[in-house]
Amino acid sequence: MIADLLTRLEEEKDQWIYVAIDHFNEELLQFDGHRYEKDQVLIGVNGLLDELTAVRTAENQIMQIKNIEHSMSKQKNLDLERMETEMKTMEESIEEDQRILENLELTVVALQKELAIYEGEGKGLDMIQLEKFQCSLDDKFQFDKKDQVVFKERKISKLMECYHLVEMEMLDFYQKQLSNIWLLLTRSMENISSNAKFDFETNLPAVGVSLKHGRGLDQYLKLGNFEEDYQIVLDTLERNNDSVYDYYLSQINEFKVNSKEEMMQLWALKNEHKRLAEENLLELQEKERQKENCILELQDRLGRAKLEWEQDLLRPKLLDDILKEEFVRAVSGWQEKLFAENASDEERWAYHQFCQIILKQAERIIGNEYF
Question: What average pLDDT does the structure give for the chain?
Answer without folding.
Answer: 83
